[in-house]
Design goal:
The protein has 760 residues and is an alpha+beta fold. The chain contains 20 helices and 28 strands.
Length: 760
């Protein structure tokens, strides 16, 4: 168990440090300088979360198989091709000395905390392995792991887009992959017009061989993202009010760690820095939170920060490739995968000046990946400077130079200002190539030319509306959008509902922000319900869907756990989108067998146009007309529901949308132990495409709102709890409040346990 009370001694400390925990295990660390604070935070993180920290560094480095053997070899093969451990070591040497000192102090604290446990963390007992010591570059690997989490889907999506672009007529490709449409709610500009469908002379899906369809294709809505929104002091009692709920895969314990850091200000005798929010175990800083002067938040930006480069090999020597000036040798690296209970495996990795060669294009041309995460200056601890920042204007400069995956960044200060920009590096692209498709960077002036200067970043400062919002959808237009690119923006329905909720009030308190975060009105599905009812009314056999019609009567316009109607409408939409999109995928499969569509977050626009216009040439093969397809979708939904115990009337949304929040090891353990480690299977209100994003294992990894300077009146909830030790009183602590939407105070409560660390 972690050490929660008492007094400890450590010669690395320069002054006493106090570590307090409240009833939820929220940690407050008090120290006399920032390095001692980092040592103490590392100590706490290691004792509570070392296994989870270990998984993150190993995931980025491709070293999971050292713990888990053959089960994780495929994941390691994919990750090791990036050689992230070697890159992290290079990054470490290039960091400013103060940041290296911070990482080294944190490293010492982690290893001290690990060594002070009387027995190694329980996960290593279960796996019969031993933890490896923490190194300074491991903290950089944790940041790189977040690059994988937030960018991975966008990167590999572009490979499928290239195949679509090469196979489909131009009008069909544009129809499926446009950047936005009527659901847009950008901060700047208006909604975009969606392109019209391709004509019959360009594409005829209906005449395709039905064998090209894949009936097991699943359309998936959810994506790593988040909600963030803020109002200026004009709409509060004076300070800005910032809300944030970051959407990620949920687990036990939670990704984040509730943390408060308190240490003296330099040159101010009695003043202190007081920062509260969430830290990320493995990294010695507060990621998002408030410091009595500013409050800041993040959402995944879904700009395009990775490009595939077509590698032109020498016609007589495939070990050389062409850059802009000459033929260069391809660098070759040998990476050894150490696999528990199995022989080592050596990977041969080929790299260009742009990045590693990881794939081939539709015409078999090798592709190298240029990605911000692969550049030495794309990872740093600059974000730590927000701890001591006192204005929103100053925070913007820090965010724009932060070495993190590019994020929407919303900040507000106690004087009432609110600002939106992008945090993280933005590459400068030259020669106007389409960044969503592979390009030949051996051509003159094609590729990346350094990083965008901070003065050129998209920025919105104190808008006239006094409101800002961000929900992974397109935020800007015109030249700003060109700078950011399109990495797979979300549909915009969620952002639109948040925007409209913000405009529905002229005065805000933290509880008003919570009401928006918990908004699970099914505005987005209203038209799908109407379409479903119209299709049922047109059915020739009125008795065929009697149970479906009857269950639709409980529709209350909410994604509520007791609603059978919501489940039916949700399932109907999924079924329609899957079948319609599979028709386009079948057209690609004529030339590319086995092709699978990438995540098309804007596909709602395309599908809705088709089911309203009913173009016969774009109807998937096997259906007589569009009404036939819609009725087949209803029949499939009804069949699945009738096959479940209790039939249609017993299949409410809560049964489908029950929490499935697991400990990383639980899938491999017997049911009694697994159930003990996991959170309860509580039914969850909410869904994608509404502010309250909640699916069984994906949703708000935290939920907060705070006014800088008035932190006592803010709230903070998160699932899964603080501690990674199942016998800890803090295992799952606070999870019930997250489930029920009950606000927990933003600041930690009174100290329940106190640990004091003194210099030897």
């Amino acid at each position: 168990m972690p050490q929660y009370n008492g007094i400890g001694y450590w010669d690395r400390l320069t002054a006493p440090v106090t570590i307090e925990r409240d009833t939820l295990g929220s940690v407050t660390v008090r120290a006399q300088d920032r390095l001692d604070l980092a040592r103490a935070l590392g100590y706490v993180h290691a004792q509570e979360r070392f296994f989870e920290m270990d998984l993150m560094r190993r995931r980025a480095a491709g070293e999971l198989s050292e713990l888990f053997g053959l089960a994780t070899v495929a994941a390691d093969r994919k990750a090791r091709k990036f050689r992230m451990r070697a890159r992290a070591a290079t990054i470490l040497q290039k960091l400013p000395s103060k940041q290296r000192q911070l990482l080294n102090a944190y490293r010492d604290g982690v290893n001290r905390g690990l060594n002070k446990l009387s027995i190694r963390p329980f996960a290593y007992l279960l796996t019969r392995t031993h933890p490896a010591i923490w190194q300074s570059e491991d903290s950089l690997l944790v940041i790189l792991a977040m690059y994988f989490t937030l960018n991975d889907s966008s990167i590999y999506r572009e490979l499928a887009l290239s195949t679509m672009h090469a196979t489909l007529p131009k009008t069909a490709y544009q129809f499926l992959t446009a950047t936005g449409g009527s659901w847009d709610a950008p901060l700047i500009g208006t909604a975009l017009d969606w392109p019209q469908p391709p004509s019959a002379d360009k594409l005829n899906i209906h005449t395709l061989d039905p064998a090209l369809l894949q009936n097991h294709f699943t359309y998936n809505d959810h994506m790593p993202g988040s909600n963030s929104f803020a109002v200026s002091g004009e709409l509060t009692d004076g300070a800005a009010l910032v809300a944030n709920d970051m959407h990620l895969e949920l687990c036990v314990p939670n990704l984040w760690f509730r943390t408060r850091l308190i240490y003296p200000k330099q040159h101010h005798a009695k003043a202190v820095h007081d920062i509260s929010g969430v830290s990320l175990p493995g990294v010695p800083i507060i990621i998002a939170g408030s410091n009595r002067h500013i409050a800041w938040s993040f959402t995944n930006s879904y700009g395009d920060f990775a490009d595939w480069v077509r590698v032109k090999l020498h016609p007589e020597d495939s070990s050389r490739y062409r850059n802009k000036a000459e033929w260069k040798p391809i660098k070759t690296y040998h990476e050894v995968l150490q696999i528990r209970n199995a022989p080592d495996e050596t990977l041969i990795i080929h790299e260009t000046e742009w990045g590693p060669i990881l794939a081939t294009d539709h015409d078999k041309t090798p592709l190298a990946l240029a990605w911000t995460a692969l550049h030495p200056d794309a990872v740093n601890l600059t974000l730590a400077e927000l701890e001591q920042t006192e204005t929103a204007n100053a925070a913007i400069m820090i965010a724009q130079n932060a070495g993190i995956p590019a994020q929407n960044f919303i900040v507000g200060d106690r004087e009432g200002s609110i600002i939106w920009t992008i945090a993280g590096r933005i590459p400068i692209r030259t020669n106007n190539y389409d960044p969503r498709l592979p390009a030949d960077w051996s051509m003159p002036n094609t590729g990346w030319n350094g990083w965008l200067d901070a003065t050129q970043y998209p920025l919105i400062h104190n808008p006239a509306s006094h409101r800002l919002w961000s929900a992974n959808a397109r935020t800007v237009t015109g030249s700003m959008l060109t700078l950011l690119g399109d990495g797979g923006y979300d549909l915009g329905a969620r952002a639109k509902q948040i925007r409209d909720d913000l405009y529905a009030r002229d005065y805000f308190t933290p509880m008003d922000m919570l009401a928006i975060q918990l908004d699970h009105r099914a505005l987005f599905l209203t038209r799908w319900k109407q379409l479903l009812e119209e299709t049922l009314d047109q059915s020739a056999n009125t008795n065929q869907f009697h149970d479906i019609k009857q269950s639709l009567e409980d529709w209350n316009g909410l994604a509520s756990t007791t609603s059978v109607a919501y489940y039916i409408v949700h399932a109907f939409r999924q079924e329609v989108i899957q079948r319609v999109l599979d028709g386009f995928a079948a057209a690609v499969r004529q030339n590319s067998p086995g092709f699978k569509l990438p995540q098309l977050n804007q596909a709602e626009h395309a599908v809705w146009i088709l089911i309203k216009q009913h173009p016969p040439h774009l109807l998937p093969p096997g259906y007589r007309h569009w009404e036939d397809l819609l009725q087949a979708c209803i029949a499939q939904v009804a069949k699945r529901m009738r096959a479940q115990p209790g039939g249609v009337s017993a299949q409410n949304w809560g049964k489908y949308n029950a929490a499935h929040i697991q400990h990383p090891l639980s899938p491999a353990l017997p049911a009694p132990i697994s159930n003990w480690l996991n959170m309860p299977a509580d039914p969850l209100p909410g869904d994608n495409n509404m502010p309250r994003v909640q699916t069984p294992s994906f949703g708000a990894s935290q939920r907060s709102a705070v006014e800088p300077g008035n932190e006592e009146y803010g709230y903070f909830d998160m699932p899964g709890g603080q501690s990674g030790h199942p016998l800890s009183p803090y295992y799952g602590g606070g999870h019930t409040n997250w489930i029920t939407g009950k606000p927990t105070p933003f600041l930690p409560g009174p100290a329940e346990k106190v640990l004091q660390l003194h210099p030897s």
